[in-house]
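Thread: Newbie trying to understand structure tokens

Hi all, I'm a second-year student working on a class project, and my supervisor (Dr. K.) asked me to get a predicted structure for one chain before our next meeting. I've only ever worked with sequences, so writing a 3D structure as a token string is new to me. If someone could post the tokens and maybe explain what I'm looking at, I'd be very grateful. Here's the chain:
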Amino acid sequence: MTELIIDISYKCNSNCKYCQWNSKNSQKKKIDIPFNQVLLSRENLKSFDISRIILSGGEPTLANHLKDIVTYYHRLLLPIRLITNGINLSLKKIKLLTKWGINEFVISIDAISYDTYSTMRANSEKIFQKTLQNIKNLANFHMYHPKIVSYIGLNVVLTSINCNWHIINQILSFARDLKFNQVKFQPVYDDGYLSKNAPELKLTLKNSIELEEIISNIKIKPFELNFTNPLEFWMDLKRHLEGKNLSPRKCFLSNNVILLHKGILKFCFWCQHTRYGPINHSYSHKDVLEIQNKFQNNLEKCRVAPQCFCLQPINHIWS
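---
Reply by user tm_fold:
Sure, no problem. This is what the structure looks like when written as tokens:
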């Protein structure tokens, strides 16, 4: 069973310092994805064995055709997950989105104190407090309407600022208290924008000390399976920062995730050696398996980098 991740807009209303699609840049570029580049046919959904639709961006709540996109996939009886920064996710918006067909929500937030948050996201404290309230509203809605909202999660981008046990434990405790299903951490990566605009947020060898403390604490008190990243994630990240190679052969994307980016079906943003192809092409299940085998056979051409952690399942282990 495979998840289809669709970037439906690169407009954004959050000013994350590490992201090229932040509000400052997206206002200049005003990038939205054409409607015909985000709809995979019923036949291709079956060939790819798609089990869930994940709407991403940018900030997907700003997409021009959000209602039509959600309605299309909802009619095909697929669960739909929205990855959002939470700024627009008022209770009224939650009710509207669930009415259209979204039944899973993931909110991206990197800290739950404004002092820490503001070092990574140049948003006002008013926006931060609004986001926290929206998270609490979502959790409350999920508690009382579990058949309408079946899953809620948090995504956390790890930078040099929040990669320490105190902040991570704060986030996990916050999520547990609100009965979130999952908290996924992923390291910040540099696509050229980070090193130019916020190099101080890069994870470096210096963060190995903080990672050692995180690892020690998780060994003492491990979290429930699949609630958050396992111990091995933190050990793999430490190995990577120390310059040790992680095996690209352990990449799990070939039978786990498909990325739909501007009308092209891909394994990920970064893989250059193999991709599926245009969205308007007709794929048989045999075609899909052949392309996936080609991807697997060419994995040695890849090099595991911070961005490789992003699309892997939460329990993924590289080493």
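A couple of things are worth pointing out once you decode it. The longest strand covers residues 2-9. The mean pLDDT is 94. Feel free to ask follow-ups in this thread.
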